Amino acid sequence: MTRPKLRHVAFVVRDAAKMAEFYRQQLDMDLFHVDPDGSHFLTDGYINLALIQHQLDSETPTGFNHFGFTVESVPTVADRMVAAGVPRPVTRPTDRPFAEYRAIDPEGNWFDLSEHGFLPPDRAATS
């Protein structure tokens, strides 16, 4: 099995469009997707940056939210995680095209696991 690869980080932000423009202009990142809720997704060609639009009716605070790994086999990684004493990763909602599973580390930090990567599934095959 190949080594899992860190492929995205996500922040909850107050103004995703403004933040995306900052990263595009100042750090030459490419915008590759905008969700209906206003969340913006950028890439440097290797690591993706998810700028999740803060929702006023949400209890999720702004700031760092989670990170994600691309893995060869989620079931294999999940079995290793359970053996290490953490909960088995759970399937993400189907309206989340960028990762199939959500996991948690021993200190409660969220992270995603994906076999197809962190571009939308229809674009993952071309990248």
Automatic annotation (TrEMBL):
Gene3D superfamilies noted in UniProt: 2,3-Dihydroxybiphenyl 1,2-Dioxygenase, domain 1
Superkingdom to which the source organism belongs: Bacteria
Transmembrane segments: none
Cross-referenced InterPro entries: Glyas_Bleomycin-R_OHBP_Dase (IPR029068), Glyas_Fos-R_dOase_dom (IPR004360), VOC_core (IPR037523)
Positions of the VOC domain: 5-116
Protein known as: VOC family protein
Species name: Kibdelosporangium lantanae
